[in-house]
Amino acid sequence: MWVNTETPSAGDLLVRIGGIVFLIGAVATLVTVAPLFLGTEPFPAPAYFVCMLMGLGFLLAGAGVLRTARAQRRRAAQEA
């Protein structure tokens, strides 16, 4: 099996962190929306703000992808 021994770049780290933050926001969204379907008491407003982590995670991951693409483009330009 081939194992990558390179140190992950900052863009890769941003993508990973963004994915984790997105998942936390997605779980929070499911948890806060569930009482609306179950007919129970809804959560207070601050619980809905945690759902915004989903968008923040998406933005972080997108920034990481752009940063990695820019670094690869620079590396290719230096080699050429």
The fraction of residues assigned to DSSP E strands is under 5%
- SSE string: HHH
- Fraction of helical residues: over 70%
Give the number of helices: 3
**Overall pLDDT level:** 88
What characterizes the major β-sheet?
none
What does this structure look like?
The chain is mostly helical and 80 residues long. Helices cover 78% and strands 0% of the residues. It is built from 3 helices and no strands. The chain has helices at 10-38, 45-50, 53-79. Helix 1 (10-38) packs antiparallel against helix 3 (53-79). It is rod-shaped.
Layout of helices and strands:
Blueprint: H1 10-38, H2 45-50, H3 53-79
Short account of what is shown:
The chain has 80 residues and is mainly alpha-helical. The protein is 78% helix and 0% strand.
List keywords for this structure.
80 residues; mainly alpha; 3 helices; 78% helix; rod-shaped
